[in-house]
Specification:
Layout (H helix, E strand, L loop, with lengths): L2 H68 L5 H13 L1 E2 L3 E7 L4 E3 L15 H11 L3 E8 L6 E11 L4 E8 L1 H101 L4 H26 L2 H5 L2 H16 L2 E6 L8 H22 L3 E8 L3 E8 L21 H12 L3 E7 L2 E9 L6 H10 L1
Parallel strand pairs: 7-8
Antiparallel strand pairs: 1-2, 2-3, 2-6, 4-5, 5-6, 8-9, 9-11, 10-11
């Protein structure tokens, strides 16, 4: 994986973890709410059972009330009557009533007669029910054998006391159906949670991989585009270098080379004249010296075009003024130049960029515009540096908008180079051409201005 792909993966993994965390949190909250709902449902069903048991005890007490109220504490005949009544009372498949003496002896148990007459005070559930009965009645949850199936099952018992006879009368309801419903609801909830996690995984994982894959594809596409632009830029640089070399070669051949050949011929002529003793030898030598001075000037001009010394020594304004003076002398085109001092304010490469844009613009004006005058303004604005070059030439038309001749910097190699120089510093280049002339505006942001510390460091390095 490339570095950018690793960064993309590192940004995708936290996204995946965040989705999983959010899903887990939402699922946990939903699970808790569902469990609370199931628990509330279970509690409601248990309350219904308890209310049902109270009603059954009330019915039993109503059935034995005529006998119990008229009997004395030692009325054995009345007790036998009550036993017969309670043995006959039942509800549902496993509903019955049981009676224990306060000392733990079983008195009535229609479904488990083996318990009758035996003392069960040591049984914890019987003891608990006796305590509730002695204290006015209460519910007790325990495990007991189910008569219909002989299986042990959860049960809720309710017991009250018949204090006159020291009896506890109670009944109970098995709650295995409620627990089964609760268990089924919990199992359904668990299945739903698992299905939710699986669904989230089936959606999230492909989505994350799709995002990652899309990012990789875009990365590869951008990389190919960047490579193509880099190749184009490299070729453009090579073309520019070759063009510059061709220009310098032409100037050396057409200017300096011819001047030097002329100087050689003049010197040869002067040599012959000296040997022959002619008086014209001195004039010939002076003519050769003049030709040599012309060649020296041409060398200086070419050297100045390659890198003006004023740009480093005197600053941008002085270098532009020298460029304009040479332009006026060479072309007889008047240039109105206004500038503020930018010495030690701009970095060296920014000054070079502005100078090269002005040089290229003046060169284009000389070659193509047939202008009579030019205005060049160099000023500092609130947003940064601004250079404006205006000529009154015939203008030009680009491929983008041939109708109104309002253009951006495109088309020729020189204009593209200008634009790239400005974009390198975060600036902009605007070119507007009409039949009455062309306006070029180059802008650099204020952020490139050197601070005092930068200026000091630049002086020290110089």
């Amino acid at each position: 994986m490339t570095f950018r792909q690793q960064i993309l993966a590192l940004t995708t993994i936290p996204l995946l973890l965040a989705i999983l965390a959010i899903t887990s949190l939402v699922t946990w909250q939903s699970s808790q709410l569902s469990k609370d709902g199931i628990q509330a449902f279970e509690q409601s069903m248990l309350y219904a059972k308890e209310s049902e048991l109270k009603n059954y005890i009330e019915l039993a007490l109503t059935a034995i009330k005529p006998v119990y109220e008229n009997a004395t504490p030692d009325d054995e005949f009345a007790k036998e009557q009550v036993k017969r009544v309670l043995n006959r009372l039942s509800f549902g498949e496993d509903g019955y009533f049981y009676v224990y003496h306060y000392d733990g002896t079983n008195v009535v148990h229609p479904r488990q007669p083996f318990r009758v007459g035996k003392n069960w005070a040591d049984h914890p559930d019987v003891a608990a029910l006796l305590d509730y009965a002695k204290n006015g009645g209460g519910f007790h949850r325990y495990v007991w054998e189910k008569p219909s199936s002989s299986e042990v099952s959860d049960k809720i018992g309710y017991a009250v006391g018949l204090d006159k006879w020291q009896w506890m009368i109670g009944t109970g309801a098995y709650i295995d159906d409620i627990l089964a419903q609760t268990e089924a609801a919990n199992q359904s909830l668990s299945n739903t949670i698992n299905q939710t996690f699986l669904l989230v995984a089936l959606i999230t994982v492909p989505a994350v991989f799709a995002v990652f894959g899309t990012g990789v594809i875009m990365n590869l596409r951008e990389r190919r585009l960047a490579d193509s632009k880099l190749k184009e830029l490299t070729q453009r640089i090579v073309d520019t270098q070759e063009e510059e070399r061709s220009r310098i070669a032409r100037e050396l051949h057409d200017g300096i080379s011819q001047n030097m050949v002329g100087v050689r011929y003049v010197l040869d002529l002067a040599e012959r004249q000296v040997r022959e003793g002619k008086d014209t030898a001195l004039a010939t030598i002076e003519r050769g010296a003049g030709a040599l001075n012309t060649a020296i000037k041409e060398v200086r001009r070419i050297s100045h075009d390659l890198r003006p010394g004023q740009l480093d020594d005197l600053g941008l304004s002085a270098a532009l003024e020298s460029l304009i003076n040479n332009f006026e002398e060479r072309t007889n085109i008047d240039v109105d130049f206004e500038s503020v001092a930018f010495k030690n304010v701009l970095p060296s490469d920014a000054k070079t960029a502005i100078y090269r844009i002005a040089q290229e613009a003046l060169s284009n004006i000389e070659k193509h515009s047939a202008a009579e005058n030019v205005k060049l303004r160099l000023k500092s604005t609130k947003t940064g540096l601004e250079m404006v070059i205006i000529d009154n030439g015939r203008g030009f038309v680009t491929k983008q908008n041939p109708k109104d001749k309002t253009i951006g910097p495109s088309g020729g190699l020189g204009l593209r180079n200008m634009q790239e120089r400005m974009e390198h510093f975060g600036g902009s280049l605007e070119v507007i051409s009409t039949p009455k002339g062309t306006r070029l505006v180059a802008r650099l942001p204020r952020s490139i201005y050197l601070t005092n510390a930068n200026i000091k460091a630049e002086f020290q390095s110089a």
